[in-house]
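Data availability excerpt. The first of two example chains:
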Amino acid sequence: MNEDLSATTPIPIRILLVDDHAIVRKGLRALLTELDDIEVIGEANDGQEAIKQAAALQPDVILMDIVMPNVDGIEATRQITQRQPESRVLALTSFAGDDQVFPAIKAGALGYLLKDSDPTELIQAIRRVHKGEPSLTPRIARKLLHELGRPLSEKRPSSKTPTPEPLTEREVEVLRFVAQGMGNQEIAAELSIAEVTVRSHVSHILDKLHLANRVQATLYALREGLTSLDGNLDFDSK
């Protein structure tokens, strides 16, 4: 009798590599093709090509360089996440400066990793981002936390204050779980509610707080003391 291999073989995470240096893309491809649960389905050498490839290939995760010619990684991230939010972006760059980190997260990147990180960190970050979980090293998280903690008058003109409508008790509960890196399915199981209800709560949380994604929600929870870098928050450690 033929066995149904699809029932036991996991569907690989489909990756799009975006970097203007061919040698970087080649190195990443060589690393990732060694893994059974990850498949590199395409490459792009700038943000403009990344936008086209993302639309054509519908990757699960995009490893996005930030500084590139023509269209940079921040603008590419913004357009891709707006058009196809199911494709998650992991920024992979050599720069940890505020002028790269903050715009990348604001544009919709779900993770931010430096190119000098250990390969194991990269693989873990890909798997986390694929599950819709934020992936930031404490170094980057603290930068973002400091930015969120600044007075509104010091922030960029586009900054918005949270709506006067407070979060409900259940929304605060969901936010805590989001900040712990839990996905919608896990939160639903924890609270004994439907996954679609969790999605609705997360959407309301982001709308009320004027946040773009779960990374920003996690950082908000950090700022408000709902979780901590040294507590339950499952950021990548280094």
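And the second chain:
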Amino acid sequence: MPMRFQSIAADVKLGRDVRIFEFVNLYGCEIGDESKVGAFVEIQKGARIGRRVKVSSHSFICEGVEIEDDVFVGHGVVFINDRYPRAVTESGHLQTETDWHVVRTTVRRGASIGSGSTILCGVEIGEGAMVGAGSVVTKNVPPGVIVAGNPARVLRSLAKEA
């Protein structure tokens, strides 16, 4: 019998026909129908992935991230859920979940996030928007535009010209 190198916790909710590749770590998350999760991906508790979403290899989707249907997440995309991360409290003790709160992020339907991008917490990537590879998204991305850079800035609209 072939050995499986996956860690999929019992509390993960998987939709119909979800494809999961080797070397993943999934716990407490929800993944919608027909989605695909590449190798070396971690999806944490409380994250929600919609239907027909492609999460490419080496990506990290943390607690508090919601990805709607038909979204593409490129290779090595990292989401962040804490504005002021610290290892220890002011008294010098290792922080626990009670010492900070999750800042939510939403990726709307049909958006695409290019490889190597970092998505800071508290932003919304609009419906059908495209984030260029290697971008750092620090503020909301309007629907239907292309953004790129560090910090990511609007380059142009994706609207079809008449």
